[in-house]
Write a structure and sequence with these properties.
This protein is α/β, with parallel strands linked by helices and 245 residues long. It contains nine helices and nine strands. The strands form two sheets. It has a six-stranded mixed β-sheet with strand order 5-6-7-3-8-9, with helices on both faces. Strands 2-1-4 form a three-stranded antiparallel β-sheet, covered by helices on one side.
């Protein structure tokens, strides 16, 4: 059985979409309102259970949109997404946090947004707090946290979920030097497990170390899929051709 199946997946955004009626009237008669952007164009993909896949490509190629669609954060314009298993997505650390709530309250809020039930959060609460290293600030509203404290808590909540499929978007190294090492060690445990992981990153060395298979996206299309070493070689050659570093 496949962990993920994508069938003819398309995602279209409208550029200049109005926020209010006042904006809509003048935009309706302008060219800007009519423009559309295709972030994904006919993606077909089958991911086996336990596979570790790296996705690379230039900025704007559709990498983050693809993960958001798999995670159910955004709805495809056309096509089918089939996911077998519980998905956890580390796409934007702290996205579910409320600045006025305490660290403790935000653990429950963020956990519930990420799909955890209250009893599951309670069961893992001490682990989350211990890993974050900010126990003495739990009763402080997170608006008073430093950026490092905020990231530590958000990351800790995310990695203590029960999951079958993990989606990662450039979040393998977060926080200060000590916490980066701690988070990378935790991630290595995940990549050595039998869970399914999809990683988006510009770091070719990291992807080469932890992924078995790779995908190159170009302008919303899947340009190449192969073993990770061949994909990295393909992408480096593409970068040279277009004059990228």
């Amino acid at each position: 059985m496949y962990a993920i199946e994508l069938k003819n997946l398309w995602k279209k955004y409208r550029i200049g979409q109005p926020r209010t009626l006042t904006h809509a009237i003048p935009l309706f008669f302008s060219d800007r309102y009519q423009k559309e952007f295709l972030a994904l164009k006919g993606i077909n993909l089958q991911v086996k259970e336990g596979e570790k896949i790296g996705i690379i490509g230039p900025n704007g190629s559709g990498k983050s949109t693809l993960l958001q669609t798999i995670a159910g954060i955004t709805t495809p314009t056309k096509g089918t997404v089939i996911v077998n298993g519980k998905v956890t997505a580390l796409l934007g650390l702290g996205a579910g946090f409320h600045p006025e709530l305490t660290g403790k309250d935000n653990i429950y809020l963020s956990g519930s947004i990420l799909g955890m039930e209250a009893r599951e959060i309670t069961k893992r609460f001490d682990e989350i707090v211990e890993f974050s290293g900010i126990k003495k600030f739990l009763d402080t509203p997170v608006k008073h946290y430093s950026s490092g404290m905020f990231i530590r808590l958000a990351f800790s909540v995310s990695i203590h979920l029960e999951w079958d499929i993990l989606l990662l978007d450039e979040v393998l190294a977060v926080g200060d030097a000590e916490f980066k090492q701690k988070s990378l060690s935790k991630m290595k445990e995940f990549f050595n497990s039998e869970k399914t992981i999809i990683l988006v990153s510009h770091n070719l060395e990291t992807i080469g170390q932890v992924c078995q298979k790779g995908i190159v996206l170009k302008s919303g299309r899947m340009a190449e899929i192969d073993k990770i070493d061949k994909i990295i070689a393909y992408y480096k050659n593409f970068q040279n051709e277009v004059g990228h570093v």
